[in-house]
Automatic annotation (TrEMBL):
<keyword id="KW-0173">Coenzyme A biosynthesis</keyword>
<dbReference type="InterPro" id="IPR001977">
    <property type="entry name" value="Depp_CoAkinase"/>
</dbReference>
<keyword id="KW-0418">Kinase</keyword>
<keyword id="KW-0067">ATP-binding</keyword>
<comment type="similarity">
    <text>Belongs to the CoaE family.</text>
</comment>
<dbReference type="GO" id="GO:0004140">
    <property type="term" value="F:dephospho-CoA kinase activity"/>
</dbReference>
<dbReference type="GO" id="GO:0005524">
    <property type="term" value="F:ATP binding"/>
</dbReference>
<comment type="pathway">
    <text>Cofactor biosynthesis; coenzyme A biosynthesis; CoA from (R)-pantothenate: step 5/5.</text>
</comment>
<dbReference type="InterPro" id="IPR027417">
    <property type="entry name" value="P-loop_NTPase"/>
</dbReference>
<protein>
    <recommendedName>
        <fullName>Dephospho-CoA kinase</fullName>
        <ecNumber>2.7.1.24</ecNumber>
    </recommendedName>
</protein>
<dbReference type="GO" id="GO:0015937">
    <property type="term" value="P:coenzyme A biosynthetic process"/>
</dbReference>
<dbReference type="GO" id="GO:0005737">
    <property type="term" value="C:cytoplasm"/>
</dbReference>
<keyword id="KW-0808">Transferase</keyword>
<feature type="binding site">
    <location>
        <begin position="10"/>
        <end position="15"/>
    </location>
    <ligand>
        <name>ATP</name>
    </ligand>
</feature>
<keyword id="KW-0963">Cytoplasm</keyword>
<dbReference type="Pfam" id="PF01121">
    <property type="entry name" value="CoaE"/>
</dbReference>
<keyword id="KW-0547">Nucleotide-binding</keyword>
Length: 200
């Protein structure tokens, strides 16, 4: 069983996924990590990006300057669409390969664009980590040290909170502290094990 885990930027997806992995030994596949793999130096996708945006999009060591790219694509929707069309199929292939290697009772696919990219088609259930938008904003500005306007642009590009919740089978509410989030994850884990038992 593959379970999708999503939520807006700054919602606490990583904290939730880490709890599933460290406390319960669940195999976690992170779509953000896969998005880094497909643009490593020497990969064809990186060359396509350079051809489109120029060498200024690279760091001195020849790797992708993700901050510079993010600035470009979130300022121009057409550029973002071009980038997504290039990367989403490659990321999907990486995700599928990794999920096939899972040996835990179920696997977790963590993706900020789970619904928008169609990756939810790979999953049996969807967990949404939900927080008020004001919390998302303040957490991300603090964590990434980026301007509020850039965070708002990223939030606009992601599914709106109501849209995400519409796809949710399970919701983790993360407006409180880490202990509260962990308790919710632990309860969900037990529920998934019970679900698997009834299915077998």
């Amino acid at each position: 069983m593959i379970i999708g885990l999503t939520g807006g930027i700054g919602s606490g997806k990583t904290a939730a996924a880490n709890r599933f992995a460290t406390a319960h030994g669940i195999h976690v596949v992170d779509a953000d990590e896969k998005s880094r793999v497909v643009v490593q130096p020497g990969k064809p996708a990186l060359q396509h990006i350079v051809d489109r945006f120029g060498d200024a999009i690279l760091l001195e060591d020849g790797s992708l300057n993700r901050a510079a790219l993010r600035e470009q694509v979130f300022a121009a929707p057409a550029e973002r669409q071009w980038l997504e069309q290039l990367l989403h199929p490659l990321i999907r292939d990486e995700i599928i390969t990794d999920l096939k290697s899972a040996s835990s009772p179920y696997a977790l696919l963590v993706s900020p664009l789970l619904v928008e990219s169609g990756q939810n088609a790979l999953t049996k259930r969807v967990i949404v980590v939900d927080v008020p938008e004001a919390v998302q904003l303040s957490r991300t500005v603090q964590r990434d040290a980026v301007p509020e306007a850039q965070v708002r642009a990223i939030m606009q590009a992601q599914a709106q909170r109501e849209e995400r919740l519409r796809h949710a089978h399970d919701v983790l509410t993360n407006g409180s502290d880490l202990a509260a989030l962990h308790a919710q994850v632990d309860a969900l884990h037990q529920r998934y094990l019970q679900l698997l038992e009834t299915q077998s």
